[in-house]
Amino acid sequence: MSAIQIIDAAKLLASPPPKIEWAIEGILPVGTVGDIFGPPGEGKSSLTLDFGIAVASGTGNWFGLPCIAGPVVLLGGERSGIAAFSRDLHRASQGRVIDTGMLIMPQNDQGDCPPLWAWDKHVDRWATTPWGEQVTEWLAAINPVLIIIDTLPSAASGSNIIDQPQQYSLGITIRQWAKMLGDPTVLTISHTNQASATQELVSRLHYLSRAGGNGLPGALRWIGGVSRLRGGEMDMVPGGHDYDPLNPEKRFIAFGVSKNNEMPSPHWTAVRPAFFQMNIDGSLQLVETDAAAFNRHYPDLTKEDDMGRNTKKTKKTKKNADEYPIIEPYPQENEGDNEYWRAKNGDGYERW
Predict the structure, then answer these.
(1) CA nearest 196: which of 314, 39, 23, 337?
(2) From CA 23, how far away is CA 148, in angstroms rounded?
(3) Which pLDDT band holds residue 88 (cuts at 50, 70, 90)?
(4) For 269-315, what is each residue's pLDDT tens digit?
(5) What is the SS3 assignment for 277?
(6) 352, 350, 308, 349: which is closest to 327 by C-alpha?
(7) What whole-number distance in Å separates Cα of residue 337 and Cα of residue 316?
(8) How confident is the model at residue 247, as a pLDDT?
(9) Handedness of CA 288, 323, 314, 317 (dihedral sign)
(10) pLDDT tens-digit profile of 311-350?
């Protein structure tokens, strides 16, 4: 049994607090164990892979936001094999160069990435599988800065998403595993429940719509949601009103953080999400949001409700319509700055 360690608040307050180290500035702190969820096939893996490529290529930039650089490991992946992974990488890399050993995906001799953990129902705990032990030893040797687990159910055999104590235990197990590896940033990928598909965008991006209830979210400090824009939501992005659902060349997804235990609130939240255009070649492009259209869709939201919690509803009348708060999806200091938007999508990009 380990000895008790005492943390004294007086000692902590006697010196300035340490600054937050960011994996993505203003979005994701370094060393976070977090989850990105969303409906199947709506961009979770594409968005996360794009971030992984930004880290592995050493650009130090992800859509205009400073990010970490270093080795990245992808565990699992909803792909049919190396050929599919190769095609995904060629589509997503968009000219970014990845050196040998900077973005790697381990497989066994059968071309699979088996579960890392298995639920032992006899003792009600998660046990590391033989493959998990082998991968853990290998990870400790290469010291990655980012580990992506795609998807969480594929990494945890016997996972029951409606068993909240089991899911909470899984979150604690992954946190302890990350601590043993030296606290890399770890992102898991999971799904939403089917009932949430009919909810409005702000609710779909909130972790309460994630499949499995509050079990895993209760153990994690950071959770982000991804969802494709639907129907009238398309008005919130430039050119969205011309969107043809039968045309696969252009679709839009939203990303926002709904749980974050650091201050201040993230730049992109469930209430102020980032919007991306997903092109037919698999590439992503950050697009500006029509703030007025966003406000029309969600007139009851206020700026204080950054994480989509405790939303205060105010009756909108003709008298107070002009004073009603406009939701700004991005920090106001960036508005009107063409250089800001070009930095996110490359030279030649102008605001819509």
Answers:
(1) 39
(2) 13
(3) confident
(4) 999 999 999 887 778 999 977 666 666 666 666 444 554 544 444 44
(5) strand
(6) 308
(7) 32
(8) 62
(9) negative
(10) 444 444 444 434 333 334 444 344 444 443 444 444 433 3
What tens digit of pLDDT does each residue of 185-222 get? 999 999 887 667 778 899 999 998 887 778 999 999 99
Contacts of 73 (CB under 8 A, 6+ apart): 104, 105, 106, 139, 142, 144, 146, 147, 148
* Cα angle 202-329-310, degrees, rounded to a multiple of 5: 45
One DSSP character per residue, 46-114 reads: HHHHHHHHHHHHT--EETTEEB--S-EEEEE-S-SSHHHHHHHHHHHHTT----TTSEE----TTS---
SS3 33: strand
Q: Which residue has the tokens 């991006």?
A: 205
Contact criterion met (CB below 8 Å) for 187 and 149: yes
If you search the block for the tokens 């800001």, which residue do you land on? Answer: 340
Which has the closest alpha carbon to 285: 255, 327, 256?
255
The CA-CA-CA angle for residues 325, 327, 330, to 5°, reads 140
Name the β-bridge partners of 22.
29
- Enumerate residues 6+ apart whose C-beta is below 8 A from 126: 117, 118, 119, 120, 156, 169, 170, 173
Average pLDDT of span 3-25 = 95
Q: Say how far apart CA 59 and CA 344 lie, in whole Å.
A: 12
What pLDDT is attached to residue 329? Answer: 42
